[in-house]
């Protein structure tokens, strides 16, 4: 990745849900912030690893957030 490549930042985080059918966390203070990654491929790899570690808990969920869409909602490269 060169300095000229766009930074398509992605956040991976998760936690225990109140109900597996809804994205409402049981305790926000206990969210697991896995990290911020420079592209989707690395974020997905981290997400899969965390999801696999918690596969036995149906209430645990991990998510990938496309931070670059929040930073540049118009997608024109200008902030």
UniProtKB/TrEMBL annotation:
This is Inositol monophosphatase. It holds the Pfam family DUF4170. InterPro entries: DUF4170. It comes from Aquisalinus flavus. It comes from the Bacteria.
């Amino acid at each position: 990745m060169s300095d000229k490549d766009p930074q398509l930042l992605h956040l991976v985080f998760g936690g225990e849900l109140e109900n597996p059918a809804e994205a409402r966390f049981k305790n926000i203070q206990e969210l697991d912030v896995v990290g911020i990654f420079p592209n989707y491929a690395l974020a997905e790899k981290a997400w899969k690893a965390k999801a696999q570690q918690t596969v036995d808990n149906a209430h645990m969920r991990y998510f990938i957030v496309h931070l670059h869409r929040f930073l540049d909602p118009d997608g024109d490269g200008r902030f």
